[in-house]
Structures are given as C-alpha cells and as structure tokens.
From TrEMBL:
One of its GO terms (cellular component) is BRISC complex. The keyword DNA repair applies. The lineage of its organism: Eukaryota, Metazoa, Ecdysozoa, Arthropoda, Hexapoda. This is BRISC and BRCA1-A complex member 1. Belongs to the BABAM1 family. InterPro entries: BABAM1, vWFA_dom_sf. It is found in: Cytoplasm; Nucleus. Keywords: Cell cycle, Cell division, Chromatin regulator, Cytoplasm, DNA damage, DNA repair, Mitosis, Nucleus, Ubl conjugation pathway. The keyword DNA repair applies. It comes from the Eukaryota.
Length: 232
C-alpha cells in the first residue's frame, strides 16, 4: 500500500493516509508521428512520438509497480482503426516486454476517435460491475497525434468516478499553423478532464516527457485540484 504523509503544524505528528492499490488502464497510441528535420543545427535528426510514448509508459510501469506491487495494469493499444485491451494483472515486467515488442503504424489521416478508446474501457471494465472503492480505476492516456485530435463531445460523461490522466506527446512544430494545431489539440484534451486529472503536453524526445510521467505516478488521493495542466 502506498502512503502519503502530510506534515502538521509544530508539535504535531505527520498524518499518514493510505493510498489503495489502483487498477490502471494504460492507453497507448501506437501510431507513429515522425518528423525529420531538413538540415539546420539538428540536420537529419528524426523525431518519433511513439518512441517517446514507449519510454514513458515503461517508466510508469516500472516505478508504479515498485511503489505498490498490488497495482494492476491493463494495456490498451490503438492504431489504425483498431483498439485492443488486454486483461488486468500486476506483472509489470510482462507488460513492459509487450511494450518493447510493440510496433507502430504510420499516423493515419483519419485517426481513431478517442471515444472508441473510452467506449472499449467502459464495455470491458465498467459496464457490468459496481464501483470498487478498495481498488479504484484510473485511465492514463499516452497520446501522440500532432496532426489531429478527435476527442468528441461528452466522451467522458460515463467516467465521472474514474480519474483520466493524459500525456500528449507531439513532434516539433515547424510553423505557426502547426503550433496552433498542437495547442488546440491540448486544449481539447484538457477540457474534458476533471479538476484532479493531470494533463501534460511535451515535445517528443524531450526529458520533460519523462518528468511529466513521474508526476502521473501520484496517487489520486493526494492530488491538489486545478494545478495539474502543463504544456511545453
């Protein structure tokens, strides 16, 4: 069990609050959005959103499992027009191996609407079960589409008691138009979330992406509302 310490005033003992084991669905965007710089100081360097997503998801699994081996994880991958969600288990090392073996598709012109991703979670997990307060559900979405974000209206209306976190990995922007699109995508993702959700955006191949991933480790019980959106 994870514990959170909150320091009291002078002469008071720290308060220990238990953080129950979680069931965490890791949603992996397995469509690679690549960019190769055409010369310049980074001449020929190739940037990959999927490569960064894999590193971040692996770091999340390793560290979250180390914090509490009773956490259970499920990998949900979406690419092209398909979505697949595996069973829950607490064997993080096996899920890391699955991630390492995963191959991406090229980013399509018309990506899977994220409503299909969340519909799959609802059908697989929430549709026929009662809420489990001793093992709450959380969804962590690693999203990597620089070109288009298809969130849809009221997509999270059935997830009122489920915390959804998002790490949005985008490729470098080469124009004001691309920058505007990335900001618009981030705003659309963020607007659907609750006040305790984390929503971060980071350039791919950036150490900041891993830093944001470490923030995602924070248990929902110890979060402070309304301070959880960051963009690079």
């Amino acid at each position: 069990m994870e514990v959170a310490e909150t320091l009291g005033g002078r002469g008071q003992y720290p308060m220990i609050r238990p953080c129950h084991a979680e069931r965490i669905v890791l949603c992996i965007d397995a469509c690679d959005d690549r960019l190769r710089y055409p010369g310049g100081p980074q001449g020929g360097k190739q940037f990959s959103t999927f490569g960064t997503i894999k590193k971040c998801a692996e770091a999340f699994l390793h560290n979250k499992s180390a914090m509490n081996p009773d956490h259970h994880f499920s990998l949900l991958t979406f690419k092209g027009n398909t979505c697949y969600m595996g069973p829950f288990n607490n064997k993080a090392h096996e899920l890391v191996r699955q991630l390492q073996a995963m191959t991406p598709n090229a980013s399509p012109d018309h990506p899977v609407p994220l409503s299909r991703v969340f519909d799959l979670v609802y059908d697989k997990v929430l549709k026929n079960e009662e809420e489990d307060e001793h093992m709450p559900l959380r969804i962590v979405l690693f999203y990597g589409r620089s070109g288009m974000c298809v969130m849809g209206e009221n997509v999270l209306s059935r997830f009122k008691n489920v915390l959804v976190d998002i790490l949005y990995i985008h490729r470098p922007v080469l124009s004001a138009k691309e920058n505007k699109r990335v900001i618009s995508n981030f705003s659309e993702l963020q607007s659907c979330l609750s006040e305790k959700s984390f929503c971060f955006a980071s350039l791919c191949e950036s150490l900041l992406a891993l830093q944001y991933t470490m923030n995602l480790l924070m248990h929902p019980n110890i979060r402070v509302p309304n301070v959880n959106a960051r963009t690079e």
